[in-house]
Amino acid sequence: MNYYDEMIEKIQGLLEEKNYDLAEKMISDELSVAYVPRDIEQKLHSLQERIIKDTIRKQISDEELEEYLFEGDPDHQLFAVNELNGKNLRQYLPLCQKYFDSNGYANAKALLIDSLIRQEIDHVFHFRRNDEIISFNPSSYEIIEESAPFLAAYRQLSDDYMKEPSKLHLAGQLLYKEFMMKLPDLFTEEEALSLEKDIIGYIDKAFDSAE
C-alpha cells in the first residue's frame, strides 16, 4: 500500500469514527500542497462532500475557543485555531496575542500566523520563541507558497524529482512544513535552496533504506 492509499484509508477510518474535524484537517492539508495527483484530488473532494452531507459543523463559542487554546491538548489547540481561521481575525487580535504569549502548541501557533498573513492583518504582534521576542506584522508578509524563497526551492525540487511524483509530493509537504514552522521568521532564498538539498537527502535516504 502506497502513501496515498494509506492516507485515504486513514481519512475513511476517521469518518467511520465520526471524527470529522481531524478528517477535514487531513484533507485540507493534503489539498494545500503544491502537487496532488488528479485521481487523489478527486477522492479528497469526494470525502469533503461526504463530511458536508454527514455533519453540520458545530460553531464553538468564544469562551470555548479560549478554553481549547489555553487549557486544551495539541489537538484541541489545532481545532481552535482552525475555527479561528474561518473567522475575521481582526476581531480576535487580543486573543491571538495572548496565545502567542502562551506556551501553546508550536504547530498551532504557526498555523495561526499563516492565517493572519492570509487575511493581511495589519497589526504588530509579539511572538515568544524560547527567550527571544519577535515582533512581526502579518500584512508585510507574503503567503508561503507565493514567496520567492519557497518558489525557488520548490522549482528545484520539481527538477530533482521530475519523474518521481511520490517523492515530489512528500518533499513539497516537508518544504512547506519547514517554512510554516519557521514563522514568523523567514528563509532567505539561499537558505531555502540549502533546505531543499537537505530534504532531498533525507527522502532519498529514507527510500533507499526501505528498499
Give a description of the structure:
The protein has 211 residues and is mainly alpha-helical. The chain has 3 domains: 3-54; 62-140, no CATH class; 144-210. The protein has helices at 3-16, 20-32, 38-54, 62-71, 74-85, 93-101, 106-118, 148-160, 165-182, 189-210, and strands at 125-129, 132-136. It has a two-stranded antiparallel ribbon with strand order 1-2. Helix 1 packs parallel to helix 3, helix 2 runs antiparallel to helix 3 and helix 4 runs antiparallel to helix 5.
Identify the notable features of this structure and list them briefly.
globular, 10 helices, two-stranded antiparallel ribbon, 211 residues, mainly alpha, single chain, 3 domains
Question: Which class do the helix and strand fractions yield?
Answer: mainly alpha
Shape estimate: globular
- Bin the helical content: 55-70%
Mean pLDDT over all positions: 88
Distance between the termini: 14 Å
Number of domains: 3
Name the beta content range: under 5%
Strand order of the largest sheet: 1-2
Tell me the radius of gyration: 18 Å
Order of SSEs: HHHHHHHEEHHH
- Largest beta sheet, briefly? 2 strands, antiparallel
Which residues form runs of ≥5 with pLDDT under 50?
none
